[in-house]
Every structure is written in structure tokens, then in C-alpha cells.
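Re: Re: C-alpha cell formats

Sure, here are both.
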Amino acid sequence: MNNRRVSPDKKERKCDPHEKRRSGDQSIRGERGFSSGGRRKEEETCFIGGRNSVLESLRAGQVKKVFIKSGKKDSRLLALAEEAERFGISVIEAEEGALDRLTEGVRNQGVAASLKPYVYADLEEVLSSCGRKDPLLILLDGVEDVRNIGAIVRTAECAGAAAVLLPRHRSSPVTAGGTEEGLCLNRQGRPPGPAPAMKTAAGAFAYLPVCQIGNIRQTLEKLKERGFWAVGADMDGGDLYQADLKGPLVIVMGAEGKGISSLTKRMCDFCVRIPMRGKVSSLNVSVAAALLMYEAVRQRN
């Protein structure tokens, strides 16, 4: 069974004379490109806490300073401090209360770090450098909970996805804090806060490209020109486990409670739903995204 909503197979869509897409042999940028602004940088200073997150960010060259608890330290903290010094990063001892204030209650395990401005990847560069013939992209439509974003990025990196795409105007930046007082995008002069998305991702931001895109419709159109299929997660879609998720694929996830927007849904080639056997009717968006990603991975293998 094939659940593609627009066309029953790839050949029919590519040969459809009514479509107004340019040839896939042309540059994906075309006349207007992805309207993403290329590689963009968040100018805020942010803090992360937690040993794995700090270590992976250190190895990725994203850390400006490391703050470690004063007093007795276990072997892992000492090793982390040595790793920071090996990279030429200053290590500053601080009381545990000060670390808690830096990370605003996020469990820090005795270590925090201030990060360099986060640089979003350029989607064109990601696709050009991707060595796979069947890259997997995750597009988040209206997902604003930063911890969900972090969890999705973590799963996407583990699943071997090429990138996560965040619309500039319909999602939170990766450097946003969990509360208004903790926002790193701070216009009231408050101290910068932690980045829960990066904490939840447990270092995945150091390895997986995250692209900030402009218009979702235009981005999906350009990706389709490149041979991608777009699958949306929707309660009215076909059974996930009967769908064909092989080949270049964009998985589109919407916000909890709202789902993907009607316009985005129309841009998807087909939609799928996750079979539910219990009394609760929906899953957390990061859990649902993980199921879709790993079903795509299973089919590729």
C-alpha cells in the first residue's frame, strides 16, 4: 500500500505536464533560492549546563568559557576541565549556587559553559555536501517549545538525518531560554539565560546542521525540484507503517495541539499517522518525530 497523497509514485509526479517546477538538473537555488539568508548567526550569549552538553560543545569549538563547581571534584569533572584547557578555553571555578543561576535551575552536574553565537547552517551547503543519495530532513512547522526542538535535534542526529529546518518566524531560535526571564533574546537588559534546546539535545547541536529557513512553501517547492518528497504527520493521514519513506525525504512535524498548518499540509505529497492503541489520542511531538524518523531509517536499511 502506498499512502502518497499527491501522486501514486515518483515517476508520475516528475512527468506530470501540469507541474510548473524547473528541471531537477538546475541549481536548487534557482531564481530565488531558499530565502534562508544563508549562514546566520544568533548574536546572544547563552549558557548550557551538563557534562555531556558542555563536552560535546567543547569538541565542536562552540564554547567561550567553562564554569566548574568549586571544591571537591570527581574524576569526570577533572577530565572535563583538562579537556577545556587543552582547547585553550578558560576554566573558572564557581559556587554551585552561581552555576544554578547561570543555568536557571537546569540540572548542570557541576559544570556550565558560555557559548559562542550559534551559527545556523545554509541549506544549500548542507545538500551540496551531503554524501547520501537519500538524505533525510526534518522540518518543524510552528514547534515553539525549545525542549521539544532539542529532543528532535538529538534524535535526528542519532538517526543520521542531514539537517533540521526551522522557519524563522514560526519557531523558537535554538538559543531561546525556557521562560520569558530566561530568554537569551533579551531586550530588557536581563542577564542571558540558558539554552534548554541545547541542553535537551545533549550535544547534538555540535554535529547536526540546523538551518533557519524563510517561507515554508518556497522551501518545500525547491526541495521537490531536487527530488525530495514531503511527508506530513497528520491524524487524517495513512498508516505510517504502510507508507513508502525511502528516497530523499522531508518529514514535516507540526506543533502539539495544532499540527501542521493547512497551507503546509497542502504542500506535502502525503501525510501519515501513527497508529494509536490506547485511550490517549496523541503523542508528544518529539516522540512522534522519532517514530517517523526511525521508520524511514528502517526502510532505508
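Second one below.
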Amino acid sequence: MATIHSTIISGAGASTALLPLLSGKTRILLVTDQNVGALEATQAIHRLLAAEGRKVEVIDTVPAEPSHHDVAQIVSQLGASQPQMIVGIGGGSVLDVAKLLSVLLHTEAPALTAMLAGELPQRRISSLLIPATAGTGSEATPNAILAIPEQQTKVGIISPVLLPDYVALLPELTTSMPASIDALCHLLECFTSTVANPVSDNAALIGLHKLVRHIERSVDQPQDLTAKLEMLWASWYGGAAINHAGTHLVHALSYPLGGTWHLPHGVANAILLAPCMRVVRPYAVAKFAQVWDLIPDADRTLSEEEKSHALVAWLAALVKRLPLPDNLAALGVPRESIPALSAAAQNVKRLMNNAPCSVSREEIAAIYQTLFPEHA
């Protein structure tokens, strides 16, 4: 658990409030990807960063699921670059890479291989993170997730040093972004984690209250900046909940899908959400009932047991309505990969230990099995 000291700027058109943060900065590294970098809202921020003679170097080659090789290549590409501030604009992958670069480009940085082996960074360059999706909440976590292709999974580098100085929640950046269920996974998993506590529960409930009221409106009316901002805050609260608790089953099963089959993290989580929550439900009935009561028009006369079942059904229906994929075969994942996926997921001990129930390799395999067409 790390204390979040980030200054948060939020609101439509609030990008001009970034100017005071740039005082005294003459060299800035902007980290993004090609899709987000092409947005007019991103280009406007780029112009703001470059105003008053500031030199802005751009890295826009961050892949969707970055590996440690990708980060090492970016560091090598930057050479002796010495930015005074790192600005990350993008989804979780971009923000995670920006967090790592804020450490790796510091003169006292440990090597990436050392951090992957457990060495914790002590210093970093000033950083500003601007999420372009209402999903990962990376801007509020001390985590940076990298694929390790040699092990066919992902690992997290976790240190409070990775938390940024500044966060900007700008809804105009998210109007063209697809639906994401990632924040919902973070909020639900943290709320039902074995390490949940009053602080994480408070963050999770605030985030869930915002999300269940605005997720569908933000998709159906993508220019509704109020709904988009509420979703950005829901995502931030999901990250804060991770910071104080931790995810479990959905993310443990998601990591091998990203590490082996390169499924986008949000897509893998969306597919896994309802099946994993169905397994968790008997061990979190009261908390599931609390979440059900947050949903607009929910039948609050049901018993706790009935509410918990209703929530799982609502989650499955939500994924279909958005719409998001609900089977692995359509995404190119063969059924024959289930044993390897199950072994890799079971090995994500950091997350599996947070689950409110013990889940065997056979039970993990059964969850993956439901994600093929005849079970959809």
C-alpha cells in the first residue's frame, strides 16, 4: 500500500491548468502511442507542452501489451536523453511505460533487469499521467505491468516511487475510445479481495457508484463529457482500490491471455469478468448484494443471496450490451491452450492469494472452458 500524493486536475477543457506544472521545465518527454498521439486533444496538449520554447521529445511506439524487451528498446533509443518531466498520455500500457521511464531515465536508476528481479527504485523524474481510456487506473497505482514472453505471462513492478506527481483527467481525450470493463474488474476484485479494508472498500464503492450509472451512457453517447469524466473518476478510484488492496481471479487468468496470446488487457478482463465472479460469488454474497444495490433500477427487495446471483447475471449481460467479446475462439485462442493457460494463471500467486476462495488448477481450467462457443 502506498500513499497517493498526486495532484489531480480534472474537467472538460482543464488542460490549460497544466501550464503551472511546467514552470521551470525546458525538456519534456511525451510518451504515447500512435493512435492516441493522432487525436486532436493529444496534439493540443503537445502544443501546450512545447510552448515557451520547451523542447518536447516524443515516444509514440508503445505497443498495446509492452514487454520488458519493448521498454529496454525505448530506453536504448532515448540514449543520453535527460528530460525534466515525463508526460504519459494513453491507456494503461502507455502509462505503465511512462512510469517506468520516469525511473529508468533518472541518473540513479537501477537497471530494468534489476527491477524485474525485485530491486526497488528510489528516485524518479517528475511525472504527469493523463489517461486516454477510462479503464486501467494506472495513474493511481504504484504498479507497472510488463509481458515476459519467455514465461508466457506478465509481471508487475511495484513501488510507491512509480506514483506520479500529477494526474489530469480530461474527458475530451476519451470520446473516441471503445468500451472498457477494466475499471469494473478492478473495483469488484478489490472490493472482494482477502486484503480488502475500509480504505479500499471506500474507494471501490465510490468508483462503483459512478461506474454503474455512467458506463453505458458513456458508450451510447460518446460526446457526453460528464459521463466520460465520471468514468475517468471511476477508473481512478479503481486504481486507488488496487493501491490499498489488490485484484485477484480475473487478473490472474487474464495475464496469461495477454502474455501468450497478446489479447488486449481490457478485452481479456471483459471475457473473464462474469465467469470469475460466478466462482467468487458464494464467498462474497454480502458484498455482491451491496454492489447490486448501487445499480439504478435494481430490485432492492431481493434477499442478499438473490442479489448476488442477480449481479453476476447483470455483469454477463453488460458485457454483451456494450458489446464486448465473450469467447476466446473468436480471438484466436485455441482450446488446446487451456492446460498451459491454467498452469500459468495458477502461478500468478501475488493475485491468486487475494481471491476470497481457493481455486484449483482444474477449476481454473473449467473457467477457461466456459469461454469457448458452446458454453457462450
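The first helix runs from residue 34 to 37. The beta strands are 7-10, 27-31, 55-59, 85-90, 126-131, 143-148, 153-158, 166-169.
- S.
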